[in-house]
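User: Reviewer 2 asked us to show a designed sequence for the structure in our supplementary figure. I'm pasting the C-alpha cells here. Could you produce the per-position amino acids so we can include them in the response letter?
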C-alpha cells in the first residue's frame, strides 16, 4: 500500500487483484468502444500510456478511484475526490498523473506476496520499502 499526498490530503492507495481486474474491465471497455479489435485495458498498456505522458482521462480517473477503494476509502469517497480533482481543466493535471504512475508502478513491480513491507515516507513521496 502506498500513502501519498494528493488533492486535498494524504491518501492510501492499493491495487489488489480484485481492483486490477475491475480496472482492466472498465478501461478495456472504454478503449474497445473507440478502438475496436484492439485490447488496451491491461495494466501494462495503462502503465505505458501513463509513463509516456499520453494517458486518457479514463486511465487516470479509474486507476486513482480503484486504488483509493483498495486503500480503504469508500466507493462514494473515492468518486467524490476523483470528481473534484481529476480532469477539471483542459487536460489531466500533473499531480494526478504522477500519483497514478506511482500507483500502477507499485502494483506492477512491488508484489505484496514477496514480503516487501512499506513504511511511510516523507510527505509528497511514495513510501519506503523494507524487506521482512
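Assistant: Here is a per-position design you can include in the supplement:
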Amino acid at each position: 500500500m502506498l500513502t501519498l499526498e494528493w488533492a486535498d490530503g494524504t491518501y492510501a492507495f492499493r491495487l489488489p487483484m480484485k481492483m486490477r481486474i475491475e480496472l482492466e474491465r472498465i478501461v478495456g471497455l472504454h478503449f474497445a468502444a473507440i478502438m475496436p479489435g484492439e485490447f488496451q485495458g491491461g495494466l501494462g498498456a495503462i502503465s505505458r500510456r501513463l509513463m509516456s505522458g499520453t494517458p486518457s482521462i479514463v486511465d487516470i480517473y479509474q486507476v486513482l478511484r480503484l486504488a483509493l477503494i483498495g486503500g480503504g476509502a469508500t466507493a462514494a469517497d473515492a468518486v467524490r475526490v476523483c470528481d473534484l480533482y481529476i480532469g477539471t481543466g483542459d487536460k489531466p493535471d500533473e499531480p494526478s498523473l504522477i500519483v497514478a504512475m506511482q500507483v500502477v508502478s507499485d502494483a506492477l513491480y512491488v508484489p505484496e506476496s514477496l514480503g516487501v513491507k512499506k513504511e511511510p515516507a516523507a510527505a509528497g513521496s511514495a513510501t519506503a520499502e523494507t524487506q521482512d
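For the response letter, you might also mention the following. Strands lie at 2-6, 9-13, 116-119, 128-131. The helical segments are 17-34, 43-52, 57-70, 75-85, 94-109.
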